[in-house]
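REQUEST FORM: STRUCTURE PREDICTION
Request ID: SP-0412
Submitted by: Lab K.M.
Chain count: 1
Length (residues): 146
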Amino acid sequence: MRGYLSRLPARSAVAAGALCTFGITLPQPAAAAGDPAKGATVFGQCQACHSADKGANRIGPSLYHVVGRPAGSIAGYDYSPAVQEAAKKGLVWTAENIVKYLQNPHKFLGDFDGDPGIRNKMPFSLADEQQREDVVAYLKSLGDKP
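STATUS: Completed
RESULT:
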C-alpha cells in the first residue's frame, strides 16, 4: 500500500490512507446481474426461432445449455457461415459473449471473424442490456430438464 500511496498526489494519498485506516471502502459499481424470471419473459421473443429444450432445433439451434458451449457445436444443425467461421476460431458462448452477441449479432460475428460481410442467419437483436443479462440468466437457470 505504501508504494501505491507514494504515487498519489498528496491530498489523494492522505484521503486513501484515511479510508484504509478506518476500514472504509468506496462503493464499487455493481456487476450487471440478470433475473431469470424476467429473462424467461424476454426469451418469448426468441422462441419463434429457438427452443430452450434439449435437442429441439428450430430455425435456430436449441439454446439448451448454450452458456459455455462452443459455437457451432450441435451436430446436424446447419449453421451460418459466420458461426461456422467463429467456431473454427474458437468462439465459446460465455455469458459475456452472449450478451454482446444479442446486442448486434452481425457486428459481433463480423468483428470476431474479421469479416464484417460474412453471412449470419440471426435477424434479431436486443438493444436493452438488462434484458440481454436477463436472457442469459434464464438460459443459465434451465438446468437439466428433459
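NOTES: The longest strand covers residues 69-70.
Reviewed by: T.R.
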